[in-house]
Write a structure and sequence with these properties.
Blueprint lengths: L2 H44 L6 H45 L5
Length: 102
Amino acid sequence: MNIIQKQADFGRTLFEINQNAMQEMIRTQQENIQKYFELNVTFGQRLPEVRDVTSFMELQREYGATLWSGIKASTQSQAGILKSAVEETGTAVRKVFTTEAA
């Protein structure tokens, strides 16, 4: 394989890696926004049940804990996507700079 073909393949591979990573990140963000709205609706529906400060504080604590666990899971998912993209890019770079045995 000549150098020009290697560079073209490398560019194509990088484009595909970036495109797939961005599509996955956008899909993940869409899911997270949907979960956020559902969470707010669920806890909004429970507000009429609140009769005193203690129950309000408990509801607020539960909402915060649920929100935090969702953010944590979302961040871990996005980090996994980025890690995978970086690993794929590393593989592509090594492939380009590996010399073929003649």
